[in-house]
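Bench notes, afternoon.
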Amino acid sequence: MIARAQRLAGWVALAAYLWMGAVLYLRVLPATAWHWPPDFYLTGYDAQNIAPFLAGLDQSAKDAYTRVLAVHDRVFIVALALWLALVGWRGSGLRIAVAGLALLYAGIDLAENAALLDVVRAGGLTSAAVGAAHHLTMAKFAALYLCVLVLIVHLRRTARDVYDSD
């Protein structure tokens, strides 16, 4: 049962990720002269960093990007968090930490998407909106990295326990 759900969540996450990549690569990035979207900045950004991206969005690219944030990325986030939790759902009590961190990542990433949608739809760049989105972007990556790190440690421990019992 868990293995089937794990595979389904993984395939849904992969399909959503590939679809978002195609939309961004084919419709959004060419319109913005290949400036990166704000949610790609690992170390955050300010209004000056993302102004060229937002200025380059014509109506078609803006619609495509908001659809990516509002629909496709949400599907990806939930599927990825579910996949991380299901992969880690074995063995010791560390599985609770993995599931909790996956849930934390999903909550932060969904909040980041809402903040970015506010920035994109507002038209003008306000320092408060960009600041909120900036901090959520950095927190998203930190939560995801921490979840993956704990998952790797957990999987290594459970694999070692299986081999040590032989």
